[in-house]
Amino acid sequence: MKANRFFIFLAVAISALLSSCNKSDNPEPFPIFEGKVIVINEGNFSEQSGSISLYNENTGEMKNRAFEDANGFSIGASIVSASVAPSGHAMLVCNNPNKIVIVDPRNMKSAFTPITQHVSNPRNTIVTNGRVLVTNWGTDYIVNEFGFWEFNKSYISVYDAMDLKYIKKFDVGTDVEGIVSYGSKIFVATKEGVKVYETFADNFTLLSTISLEGGAAAKHFAFDKMANLWVSFPGVGVVQISPEALTVEKIVSVPVDFMSGYISGDGDKVYTFNTVYDNNYMPVESTIYAVDILSGAVTEFYKGTQFYGLGVSPKTGNIFTAEVSFTSNSVMKVVGKNGMEVNSRAAGIGTNRFLFY
Predict the structure, then answer these.
(1) Which of 67, 143, 308, 321 could pair with 52 in a Cys bridge, judged by C-beta atoms 3.0 to 4.6 Å apart?
(2) Mind listing the pLDDT tens digit for each residue in 36-59?
(3) Could you give the number of structural domains in the chain?
(4) Element (H or E) spanning 55, and its range?
């Protein structure tokens, strides 16, 4: 498949670039995925209590506050999201204060000076074609008819992947969220829909805006085993897009969480979740749904009280989520492909994402 060949090539190329600026003169190569999970705990925004937990799928052991133990100080921020660069480094997207913290996942030690220039209300980040791309809400906003803020001058900031120096930024619309790459294209989720850019050198040319009737906002992405791209649209469901033709191939009606909109996949299925609240905004029930990529069939996969994120292990196919709390430790849940819980561990405050290596 074209996408997979591209990502293999990119992983080798960017690994060489990023490892050249590692603090170690002779850095060891990052291992192929071996059952380690970086658990991202967002923390409480006002308390800057974000943290990292490390879970071992092979042993079932959990280590909390791994960043603090490795570096001797707290990350001192709320961790909004995170991604794994092709080099293997984990990139932690933080706000209050705004920064991108880059760590070695083998020991959670800070690997570089955090990126801070032109980082403003950051949302997500990727490394592609020798560049670090960060989606940012910025600080400008309007108040919509429902009384909610809309960040109508969202942008992407661009940095060199080798020395992390700022290169440029460009506007992308309103309420930018997820971002993925496919070949020389990048796909960006915004309120206006999925914006597709062709990248050449440091030029970003808008090719298309893929939108749905009714104006639903795009949130996050996942690839399936056929290299099709899936996008979450809260209020609509998940949408399959051809990254080659830039066309909508399938729309599947399934509940998608308005707060997160996060999705993940295992190749054959795309997983999403949704939490129902009462009139006092207290959680009533949270459900993970599985969507078959071929038939579009939707099944209820796993239920709880309040989920905030999920992830699928490439090693076991287990689904990771958490009963989230923003005042005390969340409880991470590991669920087998049969929908049965296989493990449960205390994590940090506001558990939201899971990175596998």
Answers:
(1) 67
(2) 999 999 999 989 999 999 999 999
(3) 1
(4) strand 51-56
